[in-house]
From TrEMBL:
Domain spans labelled HTH LytTR-type: 171-273
Pfam families named among the record's database cross-references: LytTR, Response_reg
Protein name (record): DNA-binding response regulator
UniProt-listed InterPro entries: CheY-like_superfamily, LytR-like, LytTR_DNA-bd_dom, Sig_transdc_resp-reg_receiver
SMART domains tied to this protein: LytTR (SM00850), REC (SM00448)
Any one GO molecular-function label of the UniProt entry: phosphorelay response regulator activity
Domain Response regulatory as annotated: residue spans: 11-124
Amino acid sequence: MKLDDSVKTIRAIVVDDEALARQGLSLRLKELGNVEVLQECQNGREALEAIAELTPDLVFLDIQMPGMTGFEVVERLQQDNMPLVIFVTAYDEYAVNAFEIHAVDYLLKPIELDRLEAAVIKARQRLQSDRGEDEKKLLLDIVISLTGKSAQAVAELLRSGENPVKTCEKLAIKDGASTTFVPIRDIDWIDAAGDYMCVHAKGDTHIMRTTMKELESQLDSTLFQRVHRSTIVNLDRVEKVSSHINGEFHLTLSCGASLKMSRSYKDKVKHFF
């Protein structure tokens, strides 16, 4: 759906390290109309140069990029040519409500056209209103509110491969070119299969390549606990605990699954006993 042709065109830059993602977003913006993509940038350095030279109204900025993250780009922007920024991310943990609370939008990959249109409309409203607020401070506040850390600390964590947000509302599970977002609340249990994790939710099993430790760091420890070296369970799903002579226990979940719990993990779920 195209925007009103009588409305002033928004001058934009698209920043993403993936060529297909840049091209796809640019094509969708062209479909909307009234958004001119001045340049596509593949990294933070190119983005900073393009913003300084072209002074766009709006930047679509990928968060997790090699070399310089989207957060670092925001830190290095000059105050006198600060554009509006719509963050783009494939990881839902970065897209929590703090973005909306601070009136700066985000787009979650894969980007839906109606969601893109809503984000552009919001940006247009911001551009037409009095932008007396310090945009750079606003964006940096978002980084801090999302993570409890400074933008520099977040950038360091991203470069090291660590997850700066301990818990999230959804798991982003990639399968080739597609990504499935599984709500955390829907997960019954997770078990390991070599280098892969099997996420069981609402009768479906989703496979993701990660480690048990990395996955644990994304889950709320008050709800999810390890009950075996290769199993994490949603404690709210446990309906029955059965003990065995060898000291192990079996947990029966509301979905009907039966899981083995090792003796060494008994203390983690002691409220059941």
